[in-house]
Amino acid sequence: xxxxxxxxxxxxxxxxxxFFMLINASALLVLAERKFMGFMQQxxxxxxxxxxxxxxPLADILKLLFKEELRPKGADKWLFTLAPILSVTAAFAxxxxxxxGAETTLFGLLDEPIKLGVxxxxxxxxxxxxxxxxxxxxxxxxxxSSNSKYSLMGGLRASAQMISYELSYATALAAVIMLAxxxxxxxxxxxxxxxxxxxxxxxxxxVQPVGFIIYIIAGVAETNRAPFDFPEAEQELVAGYNTEYSxxxxxLFPQAEYINxxxxxxxxxxxxxxxxxxxxxxxxxxxxxxxxxxxxxxVFLAKVGGILFTYIWVRWTxxxxxxxxxxQFGWKWLFPASVINLIVTAALMLYVLNA
Amino acid sequence: xxxWPGVVIMIALGVGFAAxxxxxxxxxxxxxxxxxxLAPYECGMPAVGDARERHSVKFYLVAMIFLLFDIEIAFxxxxxxxxxxxxxxxxxxxxxxxxxxxxxxVYVWRKGVLDWGPVARATRAAARRExx
Lengths: 355, 132
Fold this sequence. Notes:
Chain A is mostly helical and 355 residues long. Chain A has one domain.
């Protein structure tokens, strides 16, 4: 086998691995969330299936596979099935442009290094932005096609909330794009290599602290997580847009949500936390060792895990807001703040460059 | 992988995964629907009317102002990438653009489009009556 075939094979393998790991990540996150939830509420969480309950997600999905598919009378036949497919596809596709490791030759297996990640496109940030917006369609269609009042209300709330927070989220990202001068996620990550003053990692977190906070808040709202989980607020809307769903079609919605969380964390890691460069906010002797041995992807995973833990932590710490508070906060505070952040960043950058 | 094939493969894998899972559950799951199961859920009571009724105009307003501001952000991205080349003249142009948009933003705010819930509207109405 010549080297071109091997290279293609390895690249397809990387895509397959990413896909497989995203499925695993959603299952593991469900387990982790329930375990942490149990820990924070002083109980065990799942502990019966497998050692310490690690097989619980597998048991859940098997149970859901053998459940009856119900479609309420009056529901739109095709859209009702299309909605979960759209949701989960958008979630998988959004991760496609997130790079998760430096270029590597796989310990000398390949002649030329390959890039770890599904796709390396020069407008990566825009692609993530575009595809995550497609996720709104899945939720709105689910709400509308069910022909149930709770579903419709949940779908409407979800659409209004997601598009509102998309503004702040996209504007916060633009400031980082400006600093790096590139829309490619890989180039943004590589712009963060090295240290400032010899000890502080060159993370954009330190030049964009406001942007990072806006991004994280908007990210929680975009993925419909607590404290902004209005589309599925159980005390108000039963289960929101997926009230009428059962069996696997129901399971696909939470799965899309958890994969979206992974994507959000992956993008935050790439844009603000230096991706696979710099394990900790300050220089450690480990950093050159990690770079030399091509273990950057472990650093990336550790950072993504840290942000995901924060998501879960926030969910069980902060009570749910009210819907009007959410919309007013998004439009009256977060959006102006992100625009001012962007303009101040631009002015400071031009000042420093021309000085 | 370089370029777009990766994105296409990922989309195909996503559709395939979802379709296979739904197909499996259709094959494996039982099927004995009853009229009660097929009725839309309304907390155990018989459903009243149709779900697709008229609803708050607020959601349409949000969708419309979102469109305006989202297009603005689409304009921002090329500027953000080319900031170094455009320099101060580009900065002044974008700030002018923002100021024009800010007029619209203030108008929308004053009109109460961003206010949700009856309390905010009631206090605004009371303030207007007092001023008049």
